[in-house]
Amino acid sequence: MSWLSRVRNGIQSLTKRQSEDNLWHKCRKCATMVFTKEWAENDYVCPRCDHHDRVGPKVRFDALFDSKRYEELPSPEVREDPLKFRDTKRYTDRIKAARAATDERDALINAFGKIDGKAAVVGVQDFAFMGGSMGVAVGAAFVKGVEKAIQLKCPYILFTAAGGARMQEGILSLMQMPRTTVALAQLREAGLPYIVVLTDPTTGGVTASYAMLGDVQIAEPGALIGFAGQRVIEQTIREKLPEGFQRAEYLLEHGMIDMVVHRHKLKEELARLIDYLTPDTGKGKKAA
Fold first, then answer.
1. Which residues contact 132 (CB under 8 A, 6 or more apart)?
2. For 147-186, how does the pLDDT look when each residue is reduced to its tens digit (9 = 90+)?
3. What is the pTM (predicted TM-score) of this model?
4. Of 41, 43, 45, 101, which sees the most CB atoms within 10 A?
């Protein structure tokens, strides 16, 4: 068989799914087709339009912690489906589907390690898990992350990404708003900083609670940040909202957040803030 025949047969053996899913990524903003490898090597930022795509906990941890070394905190055990909720599907079935798709226990995962040699506990909300929605499990994980930070005498850094409270848990999901606020009061009483990185999207009850209580509020470029949706606000006030309303750059301009930081520079900026806000971090307990 000639080399040309071997190449032709090899190309024909590639399925459409393999070609589309494994080789190419279509940017959600500019619709440019980018090699998946190039996209991943660029920290999942489009090299054409600089769109910051959504990423999960593992990608965040690998990018932030030194030498990709960290220890993931076990997810707290909570009562599942306390209201026996059912819409078009049972809530328990939705949880099982989300766990199968993400290989995660729930929407908030914590890990601890070192960022540029400085100890830190980092929590990441995964929008892929039921829209990163805030339920009892997320509230419990948040409290565990804060408690670990207090134990290690280091900052708690949270990456938010959520559609808001988890409707399937009703009032119990809304109770996580004061619960997390109390945990943050304990962190501040210990003299430790709480740094929030707002990613796309951060909305609803999450924005109305722990997402906006950071000592420093950072956002990724272009992130959607708000409480109610733009269309709902426009219908309520009967006015057209300005261009870019609820985007990170607009909120920075109007004083709602402290800085917008590109993903490529995020580790460097977080290390600087940790060093500034907790100058004795490196002399405390080891983060492992």
1. 107, 108, 125, 126, 160, 161, 162, 163, 206
2. 999 999 999 999 999 999 999 999 999 999 999 999 999 9
3. 0.89
4. 45
